[in-house]
């Protein structure tokens, strides 16, 4: 009889520990997931900028001088959509990124493509007055002169 009461008390203690530990563990798992999603978005933005800079410097045909790049509109389309012309079925490689988020700077023999995007975590789907968005900026630079 004494064993049964001790076992019942232990089960109650385990339930209390679970009630205390579960929210902390769930919050930790959500934080790890959000951090991973932000890193994936940042990596994708970096790849988008690299593809844009590569397109800007290698897709020149019939140029008489070295220091030239492709049309900026085509560069921005390649960065955002993955191809130089935008059609009806074109969608951004990263949700929320538009061509206005991409800047192309061509000066002093270098071209720089920069993508600025605000990452919005899933936690903002809950009603909150706090702004949780994180600015992500990715940039790539390449020389256009020999």
Attribute tags:
146 residues, alpha+beta, 3-stranded antiparallel sheet, 2 helices
Question: Would you kindly provide a brief summary of this structure?
Answer:
InterPro entries: TadE-like_dom (IPR012495). Keywords: Membrane, Transmembrane, Transmembrane helix. This protein is of the alpha+beta class and 146 residues long.
How would you write the strand order of the largest sheet? 1-2-3
The counted number of beta strands is 3
Query: What gap, in angstroms, lies between the N and C termini?
Result: 90 Å
Count of folded domains:
1
Order of H and E elements: HHEEE
From the spread of the alpha carbons, the general shape counts as elongated
Helix content: 40-55%
Query: Structural class of the helix and strand makeup?
Result: alpha+beta
> Counting H and I runs of at least 4 residues, what is the number of helices?
2
Mean model confidence by pLDDT: 86
Radius of gyration: 25 Å
Query: Could you name the ranges where pLDDT drops below 50 across 5 or more consecutive residues?
Result: none
The biggest beta sheet reads: 3 strands, antiparallel
* Percentage of residues in strands: 15-25%
